[in-house]
Amino acid sequence: MKPIYSFFLFVVLSFILQVNAFGQRTAVSGTVRDAATKETLPNVSVFFKDTQIGTQTDVNGKYTLVSSNPQSELSFNYVGYRTVFKNIVSAATQELDISLVPDARALDEVVIVGGKKVKYRNKDNPAVELIRQVIAHKDENRIKSYNTASFREYEKMLFSLSNVSEKFKSKRMFRNYQFLFQEQDSTLIGGKNLLPVYIQEKLADHYLSKDPEKNKTVVIAEKQVNFDSRYIDNKGMKTYFDRMYQDIDIYKNNISVISNEFLSPIADGAPAFYKFFITDTLKNQKPEVIELSFTPRNTNDMLFEGKIYVTNDSHYAVTGASFGVNKNINLNFVRALKVDLDFEANSKGKYSLSKSNLLADFGIGKTKGIGFTGERTVTFKNYQFDTVLPDTIFQGKSTVVLADAAKKDDKFWEKNRLDTISKNQLKIYGNIDTLQNLPSFKRTMKIVTLLFAGYQNLGPYEIGPVNTFYSFNNVEGLRLRFGGRTTPELSKRYYFENYLAYGIKDEKWKFFLSGTYSLNNKSIYEFPQNYIRASFQRDTKIPGQELQFVQEDNFLLSFKRGVNDMLLYNDFYRLDYVKEFENHFSYNLGFKKWSQTPAGGLNYLNSNNQLVNRLTTSEVSLQLRYAPNEKFYQGKIYRVPIADRYPVFNLRYTAGLKGVLGGEYNYHNLLGSIDKRFYLSQLGYSDVTVEGSYIAGKVPFPLLDIHRANQTYAYQLNSYNLMNFLEFVSDHYVSINIDHNFNGFFFNKVPLIKKLKLREVVSFKALYGGLRNENNPNFQSGLYQLPVYENGAQRTYALGNDPYMEGSIGVGNIFKLLRVDLVKRFNYLNHPEVSEWGIRARVKFDF
Predict the structure, then answer these.
(1) How many CB atoms within 10 Å of residue 528?
(2) Where does the secretion signal sit in this chain (predicted)?
(3) What domains, with CATH codes, occur in the chain?
(4) Region 457-475 average pLDDT
């Protein structure tokens, strides 16, 4: 949630207020039909007269048009039909159905079909035959068809508040911010007033090579609004924006927009998911260009609708495109989406992308309330193809930022921008600087930061996270905790983190202290990492509970099912060295001394039935990680990997050292895993993890692999959600975890249900492993007895001949935030205190 917090922090107060002031709002909706056949007409242009506020009818001929200002007349325009103008009631909401009459002057170019509506089909459809030709010629028209290519790119990204009303502007909290509300723009999306709050610009040179396949980007200049880093993470926000607004390549099968994969209208399988119509032929161009309109067969699916323009020659190249999404699409918080692509003929006689514009408007409600609009415009110039590019260009990193890129002055930008920029947009840089110096704004941001990020920034030190200050469990009772961490304001090389906790029931103090030194004079969270860290922790831990990005003493995790009385008191001494390389290979050298004491319902009994109060191990480890092409949300004091199609490989070797600093056992543990996301186009995506481990040496059960269990009511992706803590231990195992999200592929086709915008999820987890006799206390003396319940029933097991398996079917996107799974455990049902079925929930923010 941290990157999303950075994205919304500046405007969160606007969303909370949800101010709806529509006294001057004009809204019109209706259906457009052919006057003769009564059939609905898709892609009819509808505009408020003498404005740029407009839309197009959907596949069913329906339209909705809204303006925050009074309007009095509509225009309807469609190729082959007479243009119609209709008066409307100003500043009101109304319905208006229209019938268009064919233009007699164009009757020789229009075929009017009367009688029964003809069912759409691909067979013998000239529009489908045309799109298949476009698909067949994709490779020759892509930039990758050239041996080499180079070009310059200018990118401008602008973000604004939308639907800003006079009532909102007059709020007391904004009385000192009136300078922000000047000269608003109301022409970009549906007549909504826009208030610019953020801008970033970038100028870069790109170099591509086909054989061998290489690419290089040299960032010449970059500039962006910088908010106060105590409240808003500028790096995290920029990374999040870049992820949402990626390059639009229509020649790819799937286009990534707003963190989702959309099927391109010229993807290999596009005719199975889109309807295509030839709507115009532009004969005044050479070669002739055909206008091809397309709509989704199912308007809820992750598909576009709009128009593409294709040359009517042997190349079938795309010369332009304009498309968006249907209002019924299963996409959260997106009010409007518009993509415009312009191509120009190049020196090779082909077409190259000259300009790309992506505009998206977000909001809690579909039309009402304050929203957030983002626009990314990219301009391409100075194309050169099949020229000799020296090998030195591609040496080093694939992306290089020049040392003075962020220091370019206004004169440089005026001379080198490849596109125009308005005076209003340039004002944003100064407006935000003024805003941040206002005391009332600083007070507001402190409160919002604490509520949404969980930390209170005090400059060089910040307190938090607040959701860990209070929790409870059966052993500690009420647990109170207080702590925090230093920030880069204290030092870029030294980082410290600490907390102090106390259990009311066990009357024991717990604490943690770590110190980290950066060896490359960069933040320890910034890629590539290179640091050394020393830490000591005295605290509790549930054996078998492994959490990602969540604190174990998070208040919400205090609520657990079943018998939950096992706990460990631990003393951890750690020393780690981390080194990352530019190719995303990294290694971690570590030393750990671990002393553990069982508590609650957990006891360590040796083979003589004697209690063992303390178990101590010393170990060294080497962890290797390779994540090619990995990207992450880079924040000031965090870094979160972004799940993508590229695999992530992990290999860890750990050696126990008997006799070193009190270590009691010699052992070797080898663990490996592969994580990968598979995109299946319209069928969604699967996150797959394959993992395996082998322990060599004779060790008691606390040092075996204690498989990740979950006794909370939250659905955990990497744990077994119906397995009890410490239910299974192994000295060798392999596992597979598959979590598939269909993105509403089936629900989108069910009447009524599709209006709820729900999404289907399925998962399957299997674990196969066991204990060799040398580590099984039933066959080997000198080992700890496996835990039992108070009534003597066995509590911990080794896996038998059958793998442990569980699966789930779930419904996601409930209220746009909640996923609920029905989980089934398939075997080992005779164990005490286990359930065959369970309901688990997970909060997930996603578009």
Answers:
(1) 15
(2) 1-21
(3) 26-100 (2.60.40.1120), 126-437 (no CATH), 456-649 (no CATH), 666-846 (no CATH)
(4) 84
